[in-house]
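BUG: 3D viewer hangs when loading the predicted structure for this chain

Environment: internal workstation, default settings.
Expected: structure renders.
Actual: progress bar stalls at 90%.

Input used:
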Amino acid sequence: MEEKFVNLSDYQKASKKNVTKMAYDYIRGGSIDELTLSRNTKAFRKILLKQNILVDVSSIDLRASVLGQELAKPLIIGAVSLHKLSHPDGEYATARAAENLNALMLLSSLSSTSLEDVATASSSPKWFQLYWNKDRTITRDIVERAEQAGYKAIALTVDAPVLGHREKDAYNQFTLPEDVFLENYRGMDQMKLPGVSGSNSGLAQYVADQIEDSITWKDLDWLQSLTNLPIIIKGLQTAEDAKRCVDYGVNGIIVSNHGGRQLDGSLSSIECLPRVVRAADGIDVMLDSGIRRGSDIVKAMALGAKAVLIGRPYIWGLGAKGQQGVEEVYNLLIKELEITMAMIGCPSLDQLDISFIEEHTIPNYP
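Structure tokens produced before the viewer hung:
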């Protein structure tokens, strides 16, 4: 019987059958008790939409703009490390899918294909996600490489000074297969994960060894001095930190909790979004973590997000069907987005605002 792919769960199930247990658990898992992982999706279910009737929705305009870049759709292919764990073509397949979809892609520092090769794999716009290396020479070089390769922004991840304790990875003693490398660090000791020991994982040891845990707001001045590209802060959750972004001239904010993979027991991203938007004072705010339906995109944008990012969903598509799966998952979410927009009587994203959300279900209201 032919396998049917009707919703995101179908791609997740197919991916689970196609990839190793270690890879699947790494992609699906969160930290500690996975409270925030589950909260990310459950919080969307508590937000209720209002339906306006007798509105002409024969045409739905899904164009969006973020950081001055025009997007055909408000859905960004977010940063996920090590795509080759899910498919041999890895980030090549994702980049080619992004081109076919006319979608923006955010490439992870910890990619299994080099940033240069991803840049040449497709002509679609790309941003680069940055982990701050303890060796500032490496941080400087990778930022310069990203700019030279044509990436349009740098997204500094700030919610991982240490790695959240991911118990699935510890049980599996997560490490890389012999033919998968951290290609942005080829030629360095950092291109492979260290060996595992005790209850640790290779990735946890790698982050402890290589990722800087002492950077502060003042270090942004140095990062901004390296590049003319816009700087995005990824992993922000509070109004206070949003105000600091304004003070330090940050160009964009991605509200994120790393998909529930870092601080367990924190709020979901969608619960944090309204307070960040209110404090961001005109900085473009995006949302990452928890998007599983097109209606989730509507809710996030009604609450002030300029665009949203997905991670696990398209990686499950990659594991299920390679490039085709990435495209199908993306188009599935866009189809659901269009249907939801029509249902609520909103023909354009420009018209979508908080008035389409039932007031008593708005997170942190008023």
